[in-house]
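so my prof wants the structure for this chain in the tokens format not the other one, which i didnt know existed until like an hour ago. anyway here's the sequence
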Amino acid sequence: MQSITALADEIRAGRRVTAVELVQAVDLMHLASRAIAPFFERYDVWLTPTLAQPPLPLGLLNKSYGGAREWWRFDLSFNPWNAIANLTGNPAMSVPLASDKGALPIGLLFTGRYGDEAGLFQLAAQLERAFPWADRNPAVTAL
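here's what i got, hopefully its the right format
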């Protein structure tokens, strides 16, 4: 969750977007969707880390980073792969298959073929049977 300041900044920036700019942005999203599609003709899923760095203490993501652009930069440095699924519309799931030395979950992000949510659910069920995670409860730290 981002700060109220960053959210207000995004709202103001959104109000300045013209209809032409919006259509251009949607066209770019469609272009990205078409660009990633050939990968999934050969592979069932794309596997990446969920995060680009270790999990942060609770509350840290709620801090202000200056504004919408600063928040976007921070978020991409922390969580770069999720944005690809969000922009292309491909289904994705983060699965806590590993843990660090402090028992914090380390997620793996599986991005699937467009429209193949069922394939990801089937994979998640197989992974959970092989590597159960329901009973893992790491210590939670807050700022």
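also thought this was worth mentioning. DSSP finds five helices and three strands in the chain.
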